[in-house]
Input
Amino acid sequence: MTASPTRLLLRKLPSLAGPLPDFDPVAIAEVPQDQFVIWLREAIAAGITEPHAMTLGTVDAQGRPDARVLILKDLDERGWHYATSRKSPKGQQIAGTSEVALTFYWPLLGRQVRVRGTAVDLGREAAAADFWARSAEARSGAALERQSQIMDADLEQSAADPSEVPGGWSVFAVRPDSVEFWQGCTDRQHVRLLYNRIDRGWKATRLWP
Output
């Protein structure tokens, strides 16, 4: 069977070419949030563009997976924070099924972080604080609450008054049940460390590559 041009093109692209940093799965933080911040700071120091970008995975009413890239807004004991409208597709999907997944990928370091957990709405105060921290342009767009709807008018003529927090605007925290830290290696002996929530603490376990 002859390989397709696309396959040949893809086979020429390098992956995990290195050099890549080491990761000691023993010398780790007690909780995944602290370990994530360590890796985030190293990603920032490495000059990675938008290291706070993450892929949010959800499930719709028919059980079909969906995914999109968002920006991490904060991280604390409650989980990984992001903002969106409850009227958006992802907001409606979360209302139906609150179990979600997050993925961070920092290619220059060959590192990936996967978070699985439950999206929890942090309430109106958190939503207002996030909304007012945004630029005027971002507030105007959010105030329309038309994300992903079919455009039936000129965008520049459809700006809404951003003087009030939209009723659907929300900040969610993904409360983690498990968090995996994946360090790629040029010899493919990748280092994988999985934190699982147990009672009120965490258990870290090494996984096969």
